[in-house]
Amino acid sequence: MNEKIMQKRKWQATIFLVTMIMLTYLSSTITSFNIIHGIATLPTALSWIISNLYISEEALERLPDILEKLNETIFISIAATTTGAVVSIFLGVMGSKTTRVNGVLSSLARFIASVSRNIPVVAWALILLLSFGQNSMTGYLALFVGTVGFLTRAFIESIDEASQSSVEALRATGATYIHIVHKAVIPQCLPQIISWILFMIETNIRSATLVGILTGTGIGFIFDLYYKTMDYNTVALITFSIVIAVIFIELISNYIRKVIL
Q1: Tens digit of pLDDT for each residue in 124-155?
Q2: pTM above 0.85?
Q3: Any idea where the domains of the chain sit in the sequence?
Q4: What is the CATH number of domain 58-260?
Q5: Residues 157, 121 contacting (CB under 8 angstroms)
């Protein structure tokens, strides 16, 4: 019996591997991508990076302006994440099978999450750009909508995994719906909720850089500005600043996760 199961898994793995190879080859053919040529150009690309992307003294003089824009990007990301998380908690409670009020609201919450999540943040930025123009509000709203979609889905799954025993116990005592959610569901899911919010802050800081190029705000704006003027030394400093900021925030997030989980 075990041999048959192992044989079946081997065949499944083989079929999966062959399928992936065929899809890769087909994709390369359709897009005219030559992997050998790509590998061959790597030494030239690395040589250009070493020759151009280094931090000079002139670039360091622009550090105060870069840090100011970086702070703007970080604060917009945090604001979009926290406000989006509040909305997502309500949608998650409505959409979860454990805490839903009725099927219509549950379906509506899941629909909102699906639409928000499946449209990329960059696409939301382009859509909102037509209405709000190039400003911080456009970047905030694009990150907010993307956050609501992602966190709502994550919160629904977290609430669905909550223990039913405490919920049923409160229902047996005649507790109201709000008491059940507040006393039984949210306390169980709170560590996962905080973890998802921290993860989303990290993600939004990365996304905000690209959104800033479109909306003309934050660190993305000055990255695009110096890149177009071919000031690669300043571009290197901006990139280094973004990397350091993301790593620092990730370290803080990991520490918080260790404390709460």
Answers
A1: 888 888 888 888 888 899 999 999 999 999 99
A2: no
A3: 2-52, 58-260
A4: 1.10.3720.10
A5: no
